[in-house]
Design goal:
Blueprint (H helix, E strand, L loop, with lengths): L19 E9 L7 E10 L6 E10 L5 E14 L4 E8 L3 E9 L5 E11 L8 E9 L2 E9 L6 E11 L2 H9 L14
C-alpha cells in the first residue's frame, strides 16, 4: 500500500510510491568491470520541500550473500512537474555528476529516465550516459540501469529487486494504530 505523508509537498504526490527505506539485491555486469551480485539499501525521503532526497549504497556480495566491499554510492534529488516530467540530479562516489530527465508513466508507478548531462572528474572511469527504469511492482521497488561509455554502446549493467524496510519506529506506530482485536485474533480476519 502506498501511503502519502500529510507533510509531503503536493507536487510530489505522484512520487509517493518511492518514499521510504528499501533493501534488496541485484546483479552487476558490464564489460571491463567485475560481474557480481550486490546488495543495496536505498532511501527516498522528504522534508516538505518540492523534491525527494535519494541515497543509495551498494556493496559486492559473496556466494553466501555476505558483504565483501562497497560497490557504489549515489546521492541526489528528484522532482516532478505537473506534466509528470521527472528530473533527477545525482552525484556518484566515482566522481560522476548526472542530470537525468524522464517521465512517470500514465496510470502506473513506473519512471523512465535518461541522462541529459554528465560531468566527470579526472579520477572517474569512462562514462558517457545511461538510462534507468524504476517500477513499483507488487509493493516492491525494482529498477534496471543501462550504461554507455566511449568504448561500449548503451547496455544493461545493473538491476535490483528491493523490498520496503520497516523501522522499529514504524512498527510501534502500526501497533498503536491497530484496531482492538479479540483475544484469539481470529475474528479480525472474518
Amino acid at each position: 500500500m502506498i501511503e502519502i505523508p500529510s507533510d509531503l509537498h503536493p507536487d510530489l504526490v505522484p512520487l509517493a510510491f518511492l518514499l521510504g527505506n528499501w533493501a534488496g539485491a541485484g546483479v552487476s555486469d558490464f564489460p571491463g568491470a567485475e560481474k557480481c551480485n550486490f546488495g543495496q539499501e536505498v532511501t527516498f525521503s522528504h522534508d516538505g520541500r518540492d523534491f525527494l532526497e535519494y541515497v543509495s549504497h551498494t556493496w559486492v556480495l559473496d556466494d553466501a550473500g555476505k558483504q565483501v566491499r562497497p560497490l557504489e554510492t549515489e546521492t541526489g534529488y528528484w522532482r516532478i512537474d505537473k506534466d509528470r516530467k521527472v528530473e533527477v540530479v545525482m552525484a556518484r562516489d566515482q566522481g560522476v555528476i548526472e542530470i537525468w530527465y524522464g517521465e512517470l508513466a500514465d496510470q502506473k508507478p513506473q519512471i523512465d529516465l535518461v541522462t541529459d548531462a554528465v560531468a566527470r572528474t579526472a579520477a572517474s572511469g569512462p562514462y558517457s550516459g545511461g538510462k534507468r527504469l524504476y517500477g513499483y511492482v507488487k509493493s516492491d521497488l525494482m529498477w534496471v540501469g543501462e550504461k554507455a561509455t566511449p568504448e561500449v554502446e548503451l547496455r544493461p549493467y545493473m538491476s535490483a529487486h528491493l523490498k520496503k524496510v520497516v523501522t522499529p519506529e514504524e512498527v510501534a506506530e502500526m501497533a498503536r494504530n491497530l484496531p482492538d482485536m479479540p483475544d484469539d485474533g481470529i475474528a479480525f480476519f472474518k
